[in-house]
């Protein structure tokens, strides 16, 4: 665990998450890249999905599926669409 680096840049975050993914893979836990990307980019709902997956793995209990209030989208599509309509 001494290979993690303190920092907030996306480069450092990516390196740290690669270490986390390797450690989880050794346990047989595969976290989808879209969830990791969502957590790294502070997307609403991403951390809950990650924690739910880890909880299920470590406890052996499934979390009941709760429908989100809005569709889960970890992309910046809505921002990009609004930005395209912005005029200078």
Could you explain how this protein is built, in words?
With 88 residues, the protein is mostly helical. The chain has one domain (10-84). Helix content is 53%, strand content 0%. It is built from four helices and no strands. The protein has helices at residues 10-26, 33-40, 46-59, 77-84. Helix 2 (33-40) packs across helix 3 (46-59). 5% of the residues are buried.
Q: Can you count the helices?
A: 4
Total E-strand runs = 0
Q: How many strands, which pairing sense, and closed or not: the largest β-sheet?
A: none
Q: What coarse outline follows from CA principal-axis ratios?
A: flat
In short:
With 88 residues, the protein is mainly α. The chain has helices at residues 10-26, 33-40, 46-59, 77-84.
Secondary-structure map with pairings?
Blueprint: H1 10-26, H2 33-40, H3 46-59, H4 77-84
Helix pairs in contact: 2-3
List the defining traits of the structure above.
single chain; 4 helices; mainly alpha; 88 residues; flat
């Amino acid at each position: 665990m001494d290979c993690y680096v303190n920092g907030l840049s996306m480069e450092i975050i990516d390196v740290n998450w690669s270490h986390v993914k390797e450690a989880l893979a050794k346990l047989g836990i595969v976290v989808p890249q879209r969830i990791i990307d969502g957590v790294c980019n502070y997307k609403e709902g991403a951390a809950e999905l990650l924690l739910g997956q880890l909880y299920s793995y470590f406890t052996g209990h499934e979390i009941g599926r709760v429908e989100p209030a809005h569709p889960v989208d970890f992309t910046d599509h809505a921002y990009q669409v609004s930005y395209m309509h912005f005029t200078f």
